[in-house]
């Protein structure tokens, strides 16, 4: 698969795929080269895609690697008939992909006021920006405890997030901080598992706070980042707003921030 074309738009660069890993029949991750001039803040997203004839076919993807890393990681669903993921799921090492030049996004530490606990709440591919944030030393400097949650339909879909958290604890840069400050909470909705149910349900019935050993959400102490489907964002947003949390932005830091994960 090639992105080489005389028509390559100015807004993108052509990058080489370094590695591809398939986690389940619905999820895969890949690593691509990072241009020397490409700067981003941990948690941001960027346009990514392929040439489709003469035109680029691009979608927003959260960057799953930290800002200091040499290469860029991404996490994607596979939609058999999806215009982009239908083709993207068959990429292999040494193929080329298009990468936008201007990353952006709201799931950044700068958009949150100082606090004690940082909750990173995700479903499905929504864990991708948190893969970046939990490898950023600033996260551990700014917060005492960092709790990342991941809810998927099936147990196998939790594997990427679990490996990520295990690896962060061995990381030379943030391993010590992560071991002391980072907690992982996974739940599954369509199979038997130790934590069963949507995160909204487990927050409301207290199971989540009891399991991680914290108190219910309090805007004086807690900050929340939310990334998942439209429905998940709507429902988690309602929960934190009912608890008195104010939404933050780059220009005006607040108590919580949200972002929709890529769907195609
Ligand atoms: P469920 O299985 O009950 O739909 P998806 O793969 O469809 O994006 O879903 C990923 C996970 O997000 C699933 O476990 C799903 O649960 C859960 N989910 C879907 N909608 C919501 C919602 N509105 N609030 C919380 N979790 C949700």
Strands in their spatial order, largest beta sheet? 4-3-6-1-2-5
Q: What share of residues is helical?
A: 10-25%
According to CATH, what is the class of the largest domain? Alpha Beta
Instruction: Note the gap between the termini.
Output: 20 Å
Short description:
22% of the residues lie in helices and 30% in strands. It is α/β, with parallel strands linked by helices and 264 residues long.
Write the layout of secondary structure elements.
Blueprint: E1 12-22, E2 27-33, E3 45-52, E4 55-62, E5 71-77, H1 85-88, E6 96-100, E7 117-123, H2 128-133, H3 137-142, E8 145-152, H4 159-168, H5 175-181, E9 182-188, H6 199-204, H7 207-212, E10 222-228, H8 230-242, E11 256-260
Parallel strand pairs: 7-8, 7-10, 8-9, 10-11
Antiparallel strand pairs: 1-2, 1-6, 2-5, 3-4, 3-6
The protein binds adenosine-2'-5'-diphosphate.
Adenosine-2'-5'-diphosphate binds near residues 152 and 189.
Family: Belongs to the ferredoxin--NADP reductase type 1 family.
Catalytic activity: 2 reduced [2Fe-2S]-[ferredoxin] + NADP(+) + H(+) = 2 oxidized [2Fe-2S]-[ferredoxin] + NADPH
Protein name: ferredoxin--NADP(+) reductase
């Amino acid at each position: 698969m090639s992105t080489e074309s005389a028509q390559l738009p100015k807004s993108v660069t052509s990058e080489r795929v370094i590695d591809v890993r398939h986690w389940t029949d619905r999820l895969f991750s890949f690593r691509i080269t990072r241009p020397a001039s490409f700067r981003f803040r941990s948690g941001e997203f960027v346009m990514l895609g392929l040439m489709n004839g003469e035109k680029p076919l691009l979608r927003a993807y959260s960057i799953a690697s930290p800002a200091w890393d040499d290469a860029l990681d991404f996490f994607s669903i596979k939609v058999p008939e999806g215009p982009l993921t239908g083709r993207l799921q068959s990429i292999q090492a040494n193929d080329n992909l298009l990468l936008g030049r201007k990353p952006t996004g709201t799931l950044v530490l700068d958009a949150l006021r100082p606090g004690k606990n940082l909750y990173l709440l995700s479903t499905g591919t929504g864990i991708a920006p948190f893969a970046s944030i939990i490898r950023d030393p600033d996260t551990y400097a700014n917060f005492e405890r960092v709790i990342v949650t991941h809810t998927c339909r099936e147990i196998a879909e939790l594997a990427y997030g679990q490996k990520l958290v295990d690896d962060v604890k061995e990381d030379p840069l943030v391993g010590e901080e992560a071991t002391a400050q980072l907690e992982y909470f996974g739940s599954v909705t369509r199979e038997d598992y130790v934590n069963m149910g949507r995160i909204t349900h487990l927050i409301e019935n207290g199971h989540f706070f009891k399991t991680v050993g914290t108190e219910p959400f309090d805007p004086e102490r807690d900050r929340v980042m939310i990334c998942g489907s439209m429905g998940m964002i709507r429902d988690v947003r309602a929960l934190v707003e009912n608890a008195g949390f104010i939404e933050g932005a780059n220009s005006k830091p607040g108590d919580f921030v949200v972002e929709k994960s890529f769907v195609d």
